[in-house]
Amino acid sequence: MEYEAVIGLETHVQLKTLSKMWCGCANEFGAEPNTNVCPICLGMPGVLPVANEEALRLTALTGLLLNGRITPFAKFDRKNYFYPDASKNYQVTQYDQPSTLGGFVEFELNGGMGRVEITRAHLEEDVGKSTHFDRFSGVDFNRAGVPLLEIVSEPVITSPDMAYEYLNALKEILVYGGISDCDMEKGMVRCDVNISVRPVGQKELGAKIEIKNMNSFSGVRHALEYEIPRQIGVVSKGGKLSQETRRWDDVTGMTETMRSKEQAHDYRYFPEPDLMPFVPDEPYIASIKACVVELPLARKQRFMRDYQLPASDAQTFVWDVPLGGYFESAAKASKSPKAVANWVINNLRARLTETKTTLAEIKFPPAALAELIDLVDSGKISSRIAQDVFAEMFNTGEAPAVIVQKKGLLQVSDTGAIEKFCDEAIAANPKSAEDFRAGKVAALNFLKGQVMKLSKGKANTNLIGEILEKKLKA
Amino acid sequence: MSTLNQLTAGELARAIRRKEASARQATEACLNRIRQIDGQVKAFLSYDEADALAQADAADRAVAAGEAAHRPLLGVPIAIKDVLAVRNQPLGCASKILEGYISPFDATVITRLREAGAIVFGRLNMDEFAMGSSTENSAYFTTRNPWDLERIPGGSSGGSAAAVAADECSASIGSDTGGSIRQPAALCGCVGLKPTYGRVSRYGLVAFASSLDQIGSFTKDVSDSALLLKAISGVDPKDSTSVPESVPDYAKALEGSIKGMRIGLPKEYMIDGMHPEVSAAVKAAVDQLQKLGADIVEISLPHTDYAAACYYIIAPAEASANLARFDGVRYGKRVDGADPIEMYSRTRGAGFGPEVKRRIILGTYVLSSGYYDAFYLRAQKVRTLIRQDFLNAFEKVDAIVTPTTPTAAFKAGEKSNDPLQMYLSDIFTISCNLAGICGISVPCGFLKEPKLPLGLQILGKPFGEAALLKLAHAYEQSSPWRGQKPPL
Ligand SMILES: [Zn+2]
Fold first, then answer.
1. Among residues A236, A336, A426, B379, which one has the fewest Cβ atoms lying within 10 Å of its Cβ?
2. Domain B4-263+396-478 in CATH: superfamily?
3. What digits encode the pLDDT tens for the residues A154-202?
4. What is the ipTM of this complex?
5. A274/B241 Cβ within 8 A
6. Given a cut of 70, is residue B1 above it in pLDDT?
7. What is the architecture, at CATH level 2, of domain A415-472?
8. How far does B52 lie from chain A, in Å, by closest CA?
9. What are the catalytic residues of B?
10. How many CB pairs under 8 A join A and B?
11. What is the DSSP code (8-state) at residue B203?
12. Shortest CA distance to B32 belongs to which of B59, B5, B55, B51?
């Protein structure tokens, strides 16, 4: 019998806010332990939470970025469990009425497209971080109360690769939307993985096995690469799997049982009485909609479609959004967007790096770049001269046409003048002329170079070739 | 002439403003009184004499600087229930689990009292974590009723009520989750006000049941209630459940006649088991209100019978989560164990008293998977019905009048082994918290033998404190009970 895996992911992402979820403490990684704390995030007697509006806004925005919807009524609940890193021994989360519902993420997968439906994205608080020493344990509460977004996928993922690509796409969207920095090294993204296996064609799901607290996407992939064959191995030999929570061990490359269903927590959820429900109105939703940015995949596809760019160029403009924006301004003024992309990626970006200049500091407008390309395309200047004009534009901000005129850089297309340079070059290099006639084609290039030199780079390349050949063959 | 500690907060503030008395003299009068009688009354868990006097001196400097005109409580000593956070003072909720804990911040109510000029002092005894009706659940000692030291003062804010009744302070602050202000005020013969839920910020109040808790005052008369309410009310950015309703001038609202005001008598509150003298006293008070021009209307609050059951599900459920933070990890008592679970059970086993444990277990049970719908969810639905009963009634009447308690103060130990009997002493007060409305208890006479105070409860619309205070004030001014002092 053939088996298939059914995978769902719960991805926890720290939101990019200045302060924590319920208090004014800094949401900042790497501070000395227990320095970004106050009575509220330490759960001291008498404190009350006040919801961080920016976190609520980012959560709603995430819903839209993931093609989901903002719910008309969201509330917070208490999830009760005792653990030393939980300062109140309950976590405030959105249990049954989250801020957003539905949606999907699309991504490139094995040369085609993949798609994962999203169940919900809800807001909660992070907990502190325990450290175990020889004789005792310590808890750092700097992380306690940091706003945490949980994005729950539908159980529609079928392979480790699909899970991996989904996570990368999700991360790119969140970074793109300014939702989270998603810095894995700083623990800003953590995943719980739910896996079950079933015979192909069977509708009901197999026993759900959860792997908790994965902190890298490759870890998720590796854990799945281990766990799926393990589960299939058990059931195909007639064994039975039961619901449990497992732990992934990076070193051994295996998962192991953490707790069985019988040991599962009863979280005793109930509505958080210290916070009011969140009921967004139309203007609020409109203001969120106004913040929706183009998603990375859509941007890549659009650049490829609208400007006929190769995937690699389009990807460059997905990774570097401002550079992509600059490209678009120049490309809109140009007939050859591919040439614009080349200039922006190869020349402009290099110059910016060399001179430590930002896009905003560039002295010429994007349209000037289109103008420069036009001068080349229409044969007014040579590609070589264009490099000099570009350097001048970059330094002074002058329009390319002005530079060309001022410096007399117009391409020479006057056959009489070029013929004169060709005669001089042949006369000065009889050996090369001889070689060409003897069939050495490369010798022509040397002579072309000599003519170009004599014309101070202004001679029309095509004409040089034509005239030289005519003269040498005569 | 009365000594300064016997004056109402309003009278004292006026004397200080007119420089007829100093804040220091007033504070010393209270401290002297405490030294003299608190050994018997046992209202205070502790008090910081040096800090109180330093505040008094600061108040006197403020008077000299002319600040009295805009600080209505300047120089008035106000004592605080051990459930409210006061910076650099102990915060213990009368529990062993918080033994030695010092609060690093002021509750919003404390900040507001300080702004109004009050001298904020003392830690008043209470039932542990405000769970109880007699102060017998305090981990330290039982406060005594100033009218009869054999008897309890009520609870949970028993220390707050006894301290005011015994003139150990000008006024005090307490908290009311199911009657914890009104019931002890009635049993000790002072005025206790529970404002509308959301009227006063809960920031700095150690939560018992967050959706029911509200901070309020104990005072020697109704005009002091108005004075204190004005000082502590108003929306607070630190409490999301505080409501941005404007704060009226409650003192002004006391003026004028109550003629034409409609008062509802709920037929469901005429229960068996009520002491006949209590019924008689309430009846006399209603007659008095009628004489003053109020119209008396019989009303119905049909879901009254379910209030106690509803309350004893919702309050413990919230408490079970609110009290989870007392685990020995970050502050307070810790009894070490081999692992966190053992540390938790040892710490909480040693730190909480039996009533607190009982309610945590009850609350944990009603929230458990499989029981949630039958208990917690159903209780929330009943709660909505109870609130609707009141809102319907307030379509017809301006206020509702009931006894505050079914009996006068009972003897210490009389009910402490019977939690259900104890729970019944809040039977008239808990609906008000479930409905989120406001309520006040004013003295309405005495039991004849022994002489023990009785209370009249007036319940008002959400944010209808002005009408409530006006009625209470009119009744108080026309009653013969004003100014009677316990025989201490
Ligand atoms: Zn904090």
1. A236
2. Amidase signature (AS) domain (3.90.1300.10)
3. 999 999 999 999 999 999 999 999 999 999 999 999 999 999 999 999 9
4. 0.96
5. yes
6. no
7. Orthogonal Bundle (1.10)
8. 22
9. 81, 156, 180
10. 99
11. T
12. B5
